[in-house]
Amino acid sequence: MRNDDRFMGLALDLARRGLGRTTPNPPVGAVIVQDGVVVAEGWTQPPGLAHAEPYALAAADRAGVKLHDATMYVTLEPCCHHGRTAPCTDAILRTGVSRVVIGTIDPFPLVAGRGIAQLREAGLDVVVGTREAECRRLMLGFIRAHTEGLPEVTLKAAITLDGRIASSTGEARWITGPAARELSHRLRDQHDAIVVGVGTVLADDPELTTRIPGGRDAVPVVLDSSLRTPPGAAVLRRGTALVYCATEAPERGLPGATLIRVPSGPSGVDLQSVLRDLAARGLHRVLVDGGAHVHRSFIDAGCADRLELFVNARVLAGGPGFLAGPGYALAQAPSFRIDLVERVGDDLRLALERG
Questions:
Q1: Is the separation of the CB atoms in 226 and 249 below 8 Å?
Q2: What average pLDDT does the chain have?
Q3: pLDDT (tens digit, 9 = 90+) per residue, 39-65?
Q4: In angstroms, rounded to a whole number, what is the distance separating the alpha carbons of residues 159 and 166?
Q5: CB of 149 within 8 A of CB of 282?
Q6: Please, which residues have CB within 8 angstroms of residue 132's CB and are 6 or more apart in sequence?
Q7: What are residue 273's phi and psi, to 5 degrees?
Q8: Cβ neighbours of residue 27 closer than 8 Å, sequence gap 6 or more
Q9: Is 53 considered catalytic here?
Q10: Is residue 43 within 8 Å of 27, Cβ to Cβ?
């Protein structure tokens, strides 16, 4: 139904407000409609607080709305088990909601269709699959964590027209303008973890914080196979950093970091082991912020779901590129499909998804 698509679109917009703030829960949006009018909205709050459905129901209650024959639109199947909060299905069944339109089924084993069955058994009209592809894309990290044990991975870089991330003399500030840099920080705000290689730590000493009003900091992650991260590195100051080193790395302490030893991989630590550990920690959306060798390792391992490239209209004709290492043969070159192209100030944002 056309209205179902429209109202689910509103629920998707609400769900996006939770990106980076709901882990280990998924970002979910809910809209309650009565007589064709939106009467309440909700989105998933931080862990331990309300899920999208009870948040919206509480908003309707505060407004004094009686939900007789109302329809709820929700991007993910309502949960039907006790976790940090009570079941969302119970909250729905205590109201006058008579129809529930669901974007996609919850892959979490304790739900996985049971919430839908409970609502239907209680006599509610339940529709499943409205704008499902968009709903699943928005919570890809959560879905993948519960089906494959892996997070969603996005690689981000600021580049010139010829793909350079710095000049031949090492100048990198700033490749892109203020608007692109602000959007780059919004991406940090929307992810659970931000990953760099130890080369970036040694060269730039980044804090990996989110510098926008109201922004939140993702968990900083350093890939450091031989444990070269300096004890005074800026990334360690918050005390939340995860540093992944090889099993055979030297024994040493690193104040401000949790050290995790994993097997070695082709170009450092084994990325599958790193990603599985991140997913197990509830970090479902991972942003990889360089450098070029780290980006190449994720591409070669087939672990990059999305690229976020901020492209400046200059040409450097020298200096390091977005990806390090030898060239690919054309027939074997990894391919991505264009998802989004938009102008951001004087730069271009190019978002691509794995083909």
A1: yes
A2: 93
A3: 999 999 998 888 999 999 999 989 888
A4: 8
A5: no
A6: 103, 104
A7: -65, -40
A8: 15, 16, 17, 18, 19, 21, 43, 44, 138, 139, 142
A9: yes
A10: yes
Q: Which amino acid is at 64?
A: G
Cα(249)–Cα(180) distance, integer angstroms: 38
Q: Which of 201, 192, 216, 199 is nearest to 256 (CA)?
A: 201
Mean pLDDT of 129-141: 95
Task: Encode pLDDT of 102-127 as tens digits.
Answer: 999 998 888 888 999 999 999 999 99
CB atoms within 10 A of CB 96: 12
Nearest to 245 by CA among 233, 263, 231, 267: 263
**With left for phi above 0 and alpha for psi between -120 and 50, is residue 250 left, alpha or beta?**
beta
CA angle 176, 181, 183 (to 5 degrees): 125
What is the structure's pLDDT at 348?
96
Cβ 11 vs Cβ 75: under 8 Å: yes
- Report the first-to-last Cα separation within the chain, whole angstroms: 30
Question: In the block, which residue shows the tokens 């020298």?
Answer: 318
Distance CA 258, CA 242 (A): 5
Q: Are 165 and 175 in contact (CB under 8 A)?
A: yes
Query: Does the predicted model carry a pTM greater than 0.85?
Result: yes
CB 285 within 8 A of CB 155: no
DSSP state of 38: E
Which candidate, 77, 73, 100, 78, places its Cα nearest to that of 88? 78
| H-type alpha helices, the chain | 2-16, 52-62, 88-93, 114-121, 132-138, 140-147, 178-189, 198-204, 271-280, 292-300
DSSP 9: H
- pLDDT value, residue 168: 84
Choice among 41, 53, 77, 308 that is catalytic? 53
Could you identify the residue written with the tokens 């104040």?
Answer: 255
